Amino acid sequence: MAKFDFIKKIKKKKEVTDTQSNNEFSEKNSEKKEKISVFSVIWDKAADAVEAVDEILEELEEIWEAGSNGLVNIGAAVINFYDKASAVVEWFILKTLVVFGRRLHDIRVKSIEYKNDIIKNSIILGSAFIVIAIAFALTTGYEYSYNGRPLGIVKEQKDVVEILELASEELSQEYGSNIVIDPEEDITFRTVVSYGKEVDTEDDVLRRLTYMGEINAQASAIVVDGQVKVIVENEKIAEQVLSDIKDIFITDADTTEYEYIGFVEDVEIEAISTKLPNISNRSAAVEKLRNGGQQAAEYVVQEGDTMYGICEKLGFSIDELAAMNPGLTMESMIHIGDKIVIEKEVPLLTLETIEVSTFAESIPYETEYRDSSYYYEGEEVTSREGEEGRASVTARITRHNGEITEREDLSRETIVEPVSKVILKGTKVKPATVGTGTFLRPVNVAISSRYGYRWGRMHLGDDYATSVGTPIRASDGGTVVTAGWYYGYGLTVIIDHGGGVRTLYGHCSKLYVSVGDKVFQGQNIAAVGNTGNSTGPHCHFEIIINGNHVDPSLYT
Predict the structure, then answer these.
(1) Which residue, among 507, 484, 499, 504, has the nearest Cα to 545 in the 3D structure?
(2) Residue-wise pLDDT tens digits, 57-67
(3) Max alpha carbon distance in the chain (Å)?
(4) Is residue 329 part of a domain?
(5) How far apart, in whole angstroms, are the C-alpha atoms of residue 371 and residue 148?
(6) Total domains, the chain
(7) Fewer CB within 10 Å, N or C, the chain?
(8) What DSSP character marks residue 3?
């Protein structure tokens, strides 16, 4: 049949192939011939299977033509094909096992022949592998980091992971915060060569973690008008801080009743995740809220002010004032009305209280001036000191951080009337403000230390020891040429009397004259003090003639 001719072609090709294969491989070695023979047998078996298929197909064709009478022949053909195909498969499997057995036999023979070499090489390779494994284990480690910050090297990762819980507990206990070190998010590892480097023990890991300032912590923030002002360990501490602020300005007096206590600003406590160094303890948080802000202010120079006195009054050093006022020095000339820039601490939180209090209040006295011909014109002498009166007052008072911002008096009762102060104003004509050539003692007390050598050095004047504030008078009339801080003399007045004669009055507490003033003999020019290089309150007095110091006691 035409449609089954391809089977006959396969059989013919098989016969040609057999002939060519036998001729081609006849010249090969025995091993290759054996392989060719195997494939030849396989091909024969495959050809038999093909022939069986051909027979089946022929039978099918006859059945097709003869009809159903040939079904028995179809079954016989199928069985015949199955037998031949099974024989091919069985032969192929058997042949494969035989070839595999021969190969195992060859390997066994060669193994016995080279047994010693194989054992020796195996021992060498095994030893080398063991040495390499030991060396790798001994020279490698893990660099551990907290949030990207390298801390050290450990032998095993577990040396760090197993200590994290303990480190978190110790940090939480020490700082009072909920501190958690997450091994997945906070800790990373990197394989490194550890040979020649310090390898941390678990104690070292614990020490490094607990002393590290970059630890994350859960804390509580005191937020003022939407801005974080201070961070403390937890909400309880934050509440205590705010309570401490209130306690500073609240009194338990029976005469005070509070109508309102609260903060001017919007104050909230919020949970926050922060670094450990940002957390303040309770006392530090209170101090920061009380004085943590800075505010620029000005000081206006008043009559009698000196740089030394301003520094003492404001509580700044001259260097601190100079930093805020470039060019300012202790010798700077200042005038009434001059403004000096200063920075003062201000609170970050404002506590407002409204109270109704009953308290005693002083009543200011009045000042009464009376003329007196006993004193020179321009002189004022207190004849009687004033005395304040006393009153009982009940008032509603609003305070911000203890400072009164509003006051409403509800009642007032005078208990003691005030006594007026009496000041005598001189009317006597002033004497000439020029030198007379004669000198008065500047203070009406005995000399405490005289002109001359003492303690190995020359003492250039006489000292008059007396209490601070005692008046110092001009020894003679003249013109003031110095009125201010003068080296180790402190606050000093120097008067030029003409004719090359000058007098000096040192260590004063207050100055009543300025440079250029004309003074007369006996006029009060200053007050006794203890400024400059002084061991106690006194007036240091010098007489200088033509630039040379003389003994003042020879002239007074």
Answers:
(1) 499
(2) 565 556 555 55
(3) 175
(4) yes
(5) 86
(6) 6
(7) N
(8) G
94 exposed, middle or buried (CB, 10 Å; 0-12, 13-18, 19+)?
exposed
125 lies in a domain? no
Query: DSSP character for 364?
Result: P
**549 shares its domain with 443:** yes
Residue pLDDT, tens place only, 394-453: 999 999 999 999 999 999 999 999 999 999 998 988 788 888 889 999 999 999 999 999
- pLDDT-derived band at 392 (thresholds 50, 70, 90) equals very high
Instruction: Show which of 426, 447, 471 is a domain's final residue.
Output: 426
302 and 360 in a single domain? The answer is no
Amino acid letter at 320? E
Residues 11 and 105 in one domain: yes
- The predicted-structure confidence for 230-265, as pLDDT tens digits, reads as follows 998 889 999 999 999 999 999 888 889 999 999 999
Distance in Å from the first CA to the final CA of the chain: 166
Q: What's the token pair of residue 301? A: 């120079």
Residue 328 contacts residue 319 (beta carbons within 8 Å) = no
Give the Cα separation of 10 and 47 in Å (integer). 8
- Alpha helix segments (H runs only) across 292-415: 307-314, 318-324
Lowest mean pLDDT among 83-97, 375-389, 396-410, 458-472: 83-97
Which residue range(s) make up the domain with 411? 354-426
Hey, what's the torsion of the CAs at 405, 408, 413, 416, to 10 degrees? 20
Q: What is the dihedral of CA 531, 534, 538, 542, to 10 degrees?
A: -90
Q: Does 123 fall in a domain?
A: no
Note whether 439 and 509 are within 8 A (CB).
no
Cα-flanking dihedrals φ and ψ of residue 181, to 5°? -100, 110
Of residues 101 and 375, more confidently modeled = 375
pTM comes to: 0.43
- Residue after which a domain boundary falls, among 96, 113, 130: 113
CA–CA dist 489, 531 (Å, integer): 7
Q: What is the C-alpha separation between 202 and 189, in angstroms, rounded? A: 15
Residue 315 reports pLDDT greater than 90 = no
Rounded CA-CA distance 484/514 in Å is 8
CA dist., res. 538 & res. 445, Å (int): 10
**Beta-carbon neighbour count of residue 129 at 10 Å?**
10
Length, in residues, of the chain: 556
For residues 65 and 115, the answer to whether their CB atoms sit within 8 Å is no
251 and 312 share one domain: no
- 411 & 445 share domain: no
Contact 349, 311 (CB under 8 A): no
**Beta strands 538-545; 462-465: pairing state:** antiparallel
Residue type at position 273: S
Residue 327 to residues 182, 331, 340, 450, Cα–Cα distance (Å): 56, 11, 12, 39
Please report, for residues 268, 307, 319, 320, 322, the alpha-carbon distance to residue 325 in angstroms, rounded to integers and kept in the order given.
39, 13, 10, 9, 5
33 plus 66 within the same structural domain: yes
Q: SS3 for 211-227, per residue?
A: CCCCCEEEEEEEEECCE
